């Protein structure tokens, strides 16, 4: 699981770097089409990390409660049969 998390974190970092680079390119261009792309790039640069943060927060909350339920249902260890 740690390897998957590292790969996803690296992919997210690369995605953010590409978004920053595209924002810079669009900001320095003078074409009208690039201005529309600039707005989309700025929007994506803000929204994608926020959505990823929200997803991980909800994931942790859901799995924390399911782990607590599983621990409550299990009998204490070390007791005889």
From TrEMBL:
<keyword id="KW-0472">Membrane</keyword>
<protein>
    <submittedName>
        <fullName>Uncharacterized protein</fullName>
    </submittedName>
</protein>
<keyword id="KW-1133">Transmembrane helix</keyword>
<feature type="transmembrane region" description="Helical">
    <location>
        <begin position="37"/>
        <end position="58"/>
    </location>
</feature>
<keyword id="KW-0812">Transmembrane</keyword>
